[in-house]
Each structure stands twice: as C-alpha cells, then as structure tokens.
Amino acid sequence: MSRPRRLRWDLPESPLPKHPYRDTLLVYGGLSIVIVLVAWATGGGLGRAVGIAAVFFVVASGWSWWRWHQRLARARAKEQDTA
Q1: Would you say 58 and 25 are in contact if contact means Cβ atoms under 8 Å apart?
Q2: Which of 76, 73, 64, 75 is nearest to 23 (CA)?
Q3: For residue range 7-59, what is the model confidence (pLDDT) as tens digits?
Q4: Rounded distance, CA 74 to CA 79, Å?
Q5: pTM of the full predicted structure?
Q6: Nearest C-alpha neighbor of 64 from the set 4, 10, 20
Q7: Is 42 helix (H, G, I), strand (E, B) or coil?
Q8: DSSP assignment, residue 43?
Q9: Structural Rg of the chain based on CA atoms
C-alpha cells in the first residue's frame, strides 16, 4: 500500500526582477487599457469604464507595491543575517 502524497502549498520564492515596481505599473496599466478597450468594443459606457480602470489600477498597483515592499524587506533582512 502506497503512502498518500502530501500537497505542498508553499511555493519557493522566485528570483526578484530588476524593476519590480516599474513592471507592476506596466502590467496593471496594460490591463486597465484592456478594460477600457473591452468596454469600447462592446458598446459599454466609456466614462464608467475609465473610472473602473482607474480604480483597478490604483488598488492593484497599491497592493502589489505593498507586497513588493514586504518581499524586498525580507530579502534585505535575509542578506543581513547571512552577512
């Protein structure tokens, strides 16, 4: 009888990108543009879509910046512990 496999939910951290904050802004800016383009293509209200895209951009970027700040602080602390 085989032993059941244990699932691992914690993934190893990937290496840090060179420009995490800039990359975050580019990705969420692009997704905000997609929101507006979809509204335009489907005949939705552009004013409402721009508002939703702006809120999405601010909230998503803020969340990501906060998470990057935490991750970079952990990396700095880890470097200081090993030095």
Answers
A1: no
A2: 64
A3: 777 777 778 788 989 999 999 999 999 999 999 999 999 999 999 999 999 99
A4: 9
A5: 0.74
A6: 20
A7: coil
A8: T
A9: 19
